[in-house]
Amino acid sequence: MPPTTLLPFTTPSTSRKSGTNSSVLINRPAFRLTEKFLLLLVFSGFITLCFGAIFFLPDSSKLLSGVFFHSQHTPVAGSGPKQDGGRELEGDKLSKIREDHEKALREAKDTLQKLPEQIKQDIREEKQKVVQNSASKKEAAPRLPNVVFRKPVGATGREPSDPKTRERQAKIKEMMKHAWENYKHHAWGSNELKPLSKQQHSSSLFGNIQGATIVDALDTLYIMGMHDEFKEAKEWVEKNLDFNVHAEVSVFEVNIRFVGGLLSAYYLSGEEIFRTKAVDLGEKLLPAFNTPTGIPWALLNIKSGIGRNWPWASGGSSILAEFGTLHLEFMHLSQLSGKPVFAEKMMNIRKVLNRLDKPQGLYPNYLNPNSGQWGQHHVSVGGLGDSFYEYLLKAWLMSDKTDEEARKMYYDAVQAIETHLIRKSNGGFKYIAEWKGGLLEHKMGHLTCFAGGMFALGADGAPDDKSGHHMELAAEIARTCHESYDRTATKLGPEAFRFDGGVEAIATRQNEKYYILRPEVIETHMYMWRLTHDPKYREWGWEAVQALEKNCRVAAGYSGIRDVYSSQPTHDDVQQSFFLAETLKYLYLMFSDDDLLSLDHWIFNSEAHPLPIIGKNDQIQ
Ligand code: DMJ
To answer: Can you tell me the distance from the alpha carbon of 333 to that of 286, in angstroms, rounded to the nearest whole number?
Structure first.
């Protein structure tokens, strides 16, 4: 057999490691120089390839070394020396080694590619989770129909032409600035301000929801033309107003202040964020209606959706003024969300009420949401009952007078109230007493004083030619309530005043002598001014402004007082959010032209948040 040009070879390392191979090599002839050179060339090429793999893929050195050395050490299947064809044997070996090496490199690369691929996959999965999360959040956030916003009539006004009125209006705006600036400075983002302690004040009524003053003040800032302040309030709402909180709230309070405030801010400004937030919050309140009758719970954990009633409320009852003061806001929520569920909940409340017998035609303050039966027969047009009556009338007016059921319910209720609750004192003051199981308590709350404005607003639609009569009733209540202010040292009215024991329109109990910046008397003066233009109402409003400045204004805001009969009253250290939402707004409107939030186009909710009459200002396309 002629010597071949290409001699069989093995790598030194292989020969040293394999006795079998060594013995084969011993019997071979020595290599020629060219063969040696070729061998060296191939060998160095191989080494270069191995090192290249290591150096060019440094991050995978561990893995690569594992794979690489594993492949080197593993005997190649069928690699036993062929006795009869050294060259072929060595060629096979070489190609096998190459093949193995390439395989190892491929595997290493694959693994390396796999690694970023895995990371990529992980990232993809993470991304997917984020997308899913935000999708589920988006599901939670309301999907709202398109609305072409048309600014309702009278969202902004002109300066009054009369200089005295202009000056007074400017003064009220200055009061708003004082209240707002101090809240901003000392309690920004919290619910309310403690103007003496210069700290934040929190109320359990809102659970962990923050920013009650901001949301309550939005529309007042807007109508007063406080644009920078409105802008900063809006930015706060955008960034911070959060309803994903785990705490129990008062459904009523959150509805009138937050839902109402947001709805008004939307209708005045057209800023979408307010609509979104209002609907979002409205949806969070819906579990409150999960009761056997659909009469909502008073308290609701807006995260868990668990509701209950006030522990003190007659046998676990819901409160008339609370479940009866959702209608206006909820009708607008349906209007702006395109979701009928809000309106349906309201109409169900109506159904439950209309099925029930009313003692003497009156509505007791307590209704059990489980049994659908009245609790204690306690009737009041003040606390616990008040805004239920207000919302019957306003439901009719806000429907552009199409909601006939609400109209009937309102005028029937007023008839029963007149017959059973309204009395005249010896001194000639008409007042609205409270009814407890057939017995009258001759007490009228500050809260009850809103009824003057309500009777005036409802006078126009009164049946049986009773418009004049309703207007007279309104004027009498306004006068009595003004009297309750006039008979104090501070010229601010007490929490409740009595017509018994020889007194008239005066508080007799120490715990009824406080004034907490409430709006109801001023509210009635505002309606009376707008509907009669009798200047005495503006004067009464101005008296209240002066009394507030003298007794409630402190260096860092406005505070309630503990005793309206004291010439030097002490302060309760709370600037209530309704002072900015209601008291100052009603005062401002009293000293504005009638076309600013005209009563022909707007309905004020129980927290003085203006809502447009549906139909006159249709927003939904
Ligand atoms: C306000 O929060 C509302 O007017 C509510 O209806 C009852 N009263 C307070 C202010 O007095």
So the answer is: 12
* Residues β-bridged to residue 193: 200, 575
pLDDT score at 505? 98
Predicted pLDDT of residue 143: 80
Sheet strands (E) in 544-601: 553-554, 557-558
**Are 53 and 94 within 8 A, CB to CB?**
no
Cα dihedral across residues 35, 38, 44, 47: positive or negative: negative
Q: How far apart are CA 203 and CA 509, in angstroms?
A: 25
Closest ligand 1 atom to residue 325 Cα is 6
pLDDT at residue 33 tops 60: no
Rounded CA separation 135/144 (Å): 15
**CA-CA-CA-CA torsion sign (129, 133, 139, 141):** negative
Closest protein CA for atom 11 of ligand 1: 518
Tell me the domains of the chain and their CATH numbers. Answer: 33-140 (no CATH), 163-202+218-225+423-592 (1.50.10.10)
CA 237/CA 220 separation, integer angstroms: 15
The alpha carbon of 253 and the centre of ligand 1 are apart by a number of angstroms equal to 9
Q: Which residue has the higher pLDDT, 333 or 80?
A: 333
CB 212 within 8 A of CB 577: yes
Mutate to test the pocket of ligand 1, among 325, 447, 523, 579 (most ligand atoms within 8 A of CB): 447
The closest alpha carbon to 565, from 510, 620, 499, 607, belongs to: 510
Question: In the prediction, which pLDDT does 125 show?
Answer: 56
Nearest CA to ligand 1 atom 8: 447
Report the pocket of ligand 1 as residue ranges, CB < 6 Å.
Answer: 256, 387, 447, 518-519, 578, 582, 606-607
- Phi, psi at 431, each rounded to 5°: -140, 165
Contacts of 370 (CB under 8 A, 6+ apart): 291, 292, 293, 316
What is the per-residue pLDDT for 437? Answer: 84
The answer to whether residue 582 is catalytic is no
3-state SS, residue 610: strand
pTM of the model: 0.79
Pairwise CA distance, residues 430 & 497, whole Å: 13
Let me know the angle formed at the C-alpha of 331 by 328 and 336, rounded to the nearest 5 degrees: 120
Q: Tokens 């396309």 label which residue?
A: 621
CA distance 236 to 550: 32
Q: Find the 511 Cα to ligand 1 centroid distance in Å.
A: 19
196-240 pLDDT, tens digit per residue, is 999 999 988 999 999 999 999 999 999 999 999 999 999 999 999
Nearest to 455 by CA among 417, 420, 426, 486: 417
